Structures are given as structure tokens and as C-alpha cells.
Amino acid sequence: MKIFKGLALLMCMLVLLTGCGSGAAQETTSKDQKMKVALLLSGPANDQGWNATALEGLKAAESKFGLETTYSENVGVADTESAYNDYAARGYDLIIGHGFQFGDPAVRVAQKFPKLHFMATESNSQAENMASYVMSCEQGGYLMGILSASMSKTGKIGVIGGIEQPSIIKELEAFKLGAKKVNPNIVVYEIYVNSFTDVSAGKDAGLSMIDKGADVLYHVANQAGTGAIKAAEEKGVLACGNSYDQNSIAPNTIISSTVYNMPTVILTAVDAVKNGTFKGGITHLGMKEKVVDISPYHSFESKIPEATKKLIEDTKKQIIDGTLTVPVIEKSTK
């Protein structure tokens, strides 16, 4: 009889424990639970560019704060809202979408989960519990324009964009301004390939520019941009990388790359959630905050004229100290 009473008591305890964990996802993390952070990527995490640097940021936060983390790759525009919903329903404390297109879906899902935290990079969306962290990518694009125009012998250069959206347009437009600073008569070809993952489209765009005389290419197209780099490599012209030091993709082709310090961005957001200071809004981070930079010149160090390197360094200092503001142009002028 005592055995049956013991079993009954045990079953009651199990029911109570199960009841505590069932139903809607818990919207807060208790003190003895790890904070859970999810990352949504528009392309593959190993693209050696835009998505790779975001994953580095997630791993840095995991290491520093002891987080439970996960990520989803190749999240298409049509799937962004359901991806946010899925992680929110599973109780993730902070869900990060890496790219402009994640902003509006994050706001819609954030309204349904007011105790969770949502974030998008390069977005202009915001809500009480949804923040956008915008990198001043135009600053890096401007310097790449200076470099590309300075290294061109034909007076013709090219830039490939991914999807024609404000976060991409602003960098292409800054690239053109930087190039015109060096050579007002420079010819700048530009093509939007309407994809961040179509490598073939990126390569075709690059080849078409090279056929018209472009001898330096730049891209703001994530994985699709690696196609443009390969086109430059095959045709023996130069290129500049984006988001990540892409020199390893084509060491004899990549002069330099814009670099985005996503670990700093993600660490900033995670720290705010942990400290209870996270709030909706739009935060801009650039060269002054050491979030935007350019990579070393590697084997091109001795091939770039000293005057060009000095101009780039002086321009960078002006951006940092505020004496030069790179215009943010979010509508294409092509």
C-alpha cells in the first residue's frame, strides 16, 4: 500500500512539473537558465562575407556570455516572418535577423511576443522590443570607391549590388562618390543582380562590365558577389571585397575589402538584453565605433601608390573625427 501511495505522489509531482513546461513558450529566462539567442541569415554561413561575419558575432557572444545559440541559413524573404515566429514560440530571448529585409517581419512578430527581444541589422524598422542596428557601410564603400578609381588604368570600374534595397543602394552610391572624388570623369558601371546567393548572376554581371573595359570591380552582393570576384580573377583584373577580408578567395585579385565588425554589434545587443537595458530604436555604428573598417592590402601593399594610401587614411580619419560625413543615399541615381 505504501508503494502505491509513493507512486501516486510521484505521478502528481510529474504532472505539476509537466504543467509548468507546457503551453505557450515562456517569454523570460530564469536566473538558472542560459540566455537563448537565434540568428537568421539570408545566405550560407560559410560565404566568407556578410553571413560569415554575423556568425562570428554569434559565436563571440556565445563564448563571452555562455549563451545557448542557434542559427538558420538561406532564409528567404518570404520565410523571414515564420522564422522569427518559430524561434519566438520556442522561447528564444533574442532573435537577430541579419539584413534589411528582416526588419518589418521582426516588428510584426515582436508585437506578439512583448517580453522577447528582436533585432535586425541594416534595417530602419523599430518597435518597443525590436531594435535595428545599422552599420554605416557607406563609409567603407566610399573608401573602396577611392581605392578602385585610383587603381584603374582604363578609367572604367564596376560595382555589383545584390537586391536593390536601401541598405545596399547606400553603399553603391557612396562607392560612386568616392570614385568621383579621385576622378570626376571615371565611368562606373553598376548592376543589381536581385539576389544575395546567385553566384552565376554575380559572375555574369562582372564579366559584362569587364567586357566594356572595367578593370576594377567591387560588390555589395554577399555570396553572389563572389561570382564577380571570380570573374575578375579569370580575366586578370582587380577587385575589392565586401563585409569580410575576402583576400583569401583570390589573393592576386582582391586589393582590399570593407570589413564589418559584427561581433561588436551582436555583443552590444546581447549585453543590453542581459542587463535589462535593451530598447527599441535605431542605432548607427560606423568607423568611429570600430564597427566599419577596411582590411589590409596584403600583397598589394607595395603596388598601391603612397599618395592613394595617404588619401584613404586621411579620409578615414576625417570620417572618424566627424569632419567628413559620407552622404547616405538610399535611392539609386543610376
UniProtKB/TrEMBL annotation:
<protein>
    <submittedName>
        <fullName>Basic membrane protein A</fullName>
    </submittedName>
</protein>
<dbReference type="GO" id="GO:0005886">
    <property type="term" value="C:plasma membrane"/>
</dbReference>
<keyword id="KW-0732">Signal</keyword>
<keyword id="KW-0472">Membrane</keyword>
<feature type="domain" description="ABC transporter substrate-binding protein PnrA-like">
    <location>
        <begin position="35"/>
        <end position="321"/>
    </location>
</feature>
<feature type="signal peptide">
    <location>
        <begin position="1"/>
        <end position="24"/>
    </location>
</feature>
<dbReference type="InterPro" id="IPR028082">
    <property type="entry name" value="Peripla_BP_I"/>
</dbReference>
<keyword id="KW-1003">Cell membrane</keyword>
<keyword id="KW-0449">Lipoprotein</keyword>
<comment type="similarity">
    <text>Belongs to the BMP lipoprotein family.</text>
</comment>
<dbReference type="Pfam" id="PF02608">
    <property type="entry name" value="Bmp"/>
</dbReference>
<dbReference type="InterPro" id="IPR050957">
    <property type="entry name" value="BMP_lipoprotein"/>
</dbReference>
<dbReference type="InterPro" id="IPR003760">
    <property type="entry name" value="PnrA-like"/>
</dbReference>
